[in-house]
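Quiz preparation item.
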């Protein structure tokens, strides 16, 4: 591959994941350069001539091709590549611990539509690239500051079984839980059913056969189409719970026994409440899209547990969980992070589903009864209006300043003043009754992210969204929403 053929769009180096449309925004020569850049970064960080890199890929039609090009680049920088083959992201993360390797690269665009590709990568065990590492990698790749070396590649056989057994062996449950396991024809289909059956669940498989065309919908547990399909299957089979996994298996969505979706932030709160008495004085990290119920929860307070609100994004939460030595972290998108003794700190959708099974195993109640013990709030789904990558961060900075001014000027939203503003990631403004709205820039797509919640009423939740939407429309910089209320 000559340098003349290299094509790589610089916008693909996002906050913590690398994502491109293939082949429009990156070609195989560009992927090889990416591998050489990552290899150079790992060599210089580890100070090893031949660091060992674990590599895996999801089931998209072109992922193996991308993996081969990336491996070629890694090898040319001196890395010894250990290829797991078809993988989930958490399996690759686990392999770094199990095989004591120096870095990871997982070829996946997660839940993005077909046509997207990307790489989740990391050097320090259990962590993936944060903005600093991603920016450093971007400079190495675009300026071709490559280290030259000679590495090799070897296949790691049967690691899928090692990963499955690791989760099964320490998570057996007594209660026979009937669970719908939905994988949207993504890669989790060859993992989740076996593992959940292995811990003792009675499972009903739904779209677990691998099909890279994703004939029904993208495997995305935030997608209402997927959640509605799981709901129907739960009701039809009188199941105790429904689990929906994303394309690379690091996220899960949950449907209760009545077929009702439980947003993942509330699942996180239920898990935290279940863990708090066993692990008092623990810390839990949640993202800015998450329910306000954590901060007022009586069980967490009684057990002296602390909740920390942090930036949305699996890399951000992973690092915060690691830094704070938190017991767990929860993201509204369905990424859950369990630290020792429950996990290695990274996000694993199947381990998250297992923790929900433990919750059901520990209580003689149905999931709908457990969720009904939480105070009721009215939550919007995560809504994403289109906004150009080049414009989204500046636009959000402007909005932060506008909302600060709204607070200062005592502007009313549904007859309520803004009480607090959190700007750790975009702007999250809270009203006096605990209702709130969030606007932030998406980390992996050309869009903004909008979420609203009210403990008071459906009407107030909608009024907050209408206020946000009016402000956004006035900017002239947003396009259509993926979904809206």
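Solution:
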């Amino acid at each position: 591959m000559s340098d003349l053929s290299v094509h790589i769009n610089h916008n693909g180096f996002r906050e913590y994941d690398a994502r491109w449309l293939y082949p429009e925004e990156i070609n195989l020569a560009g992927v090889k350069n990416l591998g050489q850049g990552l290899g150079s970064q790992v060599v210089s960080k580890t100070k090893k001539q031949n660091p060992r890199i674990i590599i895996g890929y999801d089931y998209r039609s072109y992922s193996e091709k991308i993996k081969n090009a990336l491996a070629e680049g890694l090898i040319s920088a001196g890395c010894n590549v250990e290829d797991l083959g078809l993988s989930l992201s958490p399996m690759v993360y686990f392999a770094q611990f199990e095989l004591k390797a120096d870095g990871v690269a997982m070829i996946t665009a997660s839940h993005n539509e077909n046509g997207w590709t990307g790489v989740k990568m990391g050097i320090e065990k259990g962590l993936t690239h944060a903005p600093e590492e991603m920016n450093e990698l971007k400079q190495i790749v675009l300026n071709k500051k490559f280290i030259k070396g000679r590495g090799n590649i070897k296949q790691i056989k049967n690691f899928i079984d090692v990963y499955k057994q690791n989760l099964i062996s320490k998570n057996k449950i007594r209660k026979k839980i009937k669970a719908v396991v939905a994988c949207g024809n993504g890669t989790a289909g060859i993992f989740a059913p076996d593992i959940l059956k292995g811990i003792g669940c009675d499972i009903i498989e739904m779209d677990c056969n691998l099909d890279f065309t994703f004939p029904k919908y993208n495997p995305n547990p935030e997608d209402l189409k997927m959640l509605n399909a799981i709901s129907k299957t739960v009701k039809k089979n009188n199941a105790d719970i429904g689990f929906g996994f994303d394309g690379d298996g690091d996220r899960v969505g949950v449907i209760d026994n009545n077929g009702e979706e439980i947003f993942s932030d509330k699942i996180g709160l239920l898990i935290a409440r279940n863990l708090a008495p066993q692990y008092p004085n623990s810390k839990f990290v949640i993202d800015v899209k998450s329910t306000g119920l954590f901060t007022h929860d009586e069980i967490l307070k009684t057990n002296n547990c602390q909740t920390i609100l942090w930036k949305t994004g699996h890399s951000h939460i992973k690092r915060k969980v690691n830094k704070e030595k938190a017991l767990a972290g929860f993201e509204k998108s369905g990424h859950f992070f369990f630290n020792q003794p429950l996990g290695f700190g990274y996000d694993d959708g199947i381990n998250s589903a297992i923790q929900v099974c433990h919750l059901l195993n520990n209580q003689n109640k149905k999931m709908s009864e457990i969720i009904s013990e939480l105070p009721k709030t009215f939550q919007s789904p995560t809504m994403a209006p289109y906004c150009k990558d080049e414009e989204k961060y500046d636009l959000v900075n402007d909005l932060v300043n506008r909302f600060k001014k709204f607070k200062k000027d005592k502007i009313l939203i549904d007859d309520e003043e803004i009480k607090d503003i959190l700007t750790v990631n975009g702007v999250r403004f809270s009203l006096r009754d605990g209702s709130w709205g969030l606007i932030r820039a998406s980390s992996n797509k050309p869009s903004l992210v909008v979420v609203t919640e009210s403990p008071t009423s459906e009407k107030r939740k909608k009024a907050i969204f209408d206020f946000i939407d009016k402000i956004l429309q006035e900017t002239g910089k947003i396009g259509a929403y993926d979904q809206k209320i």
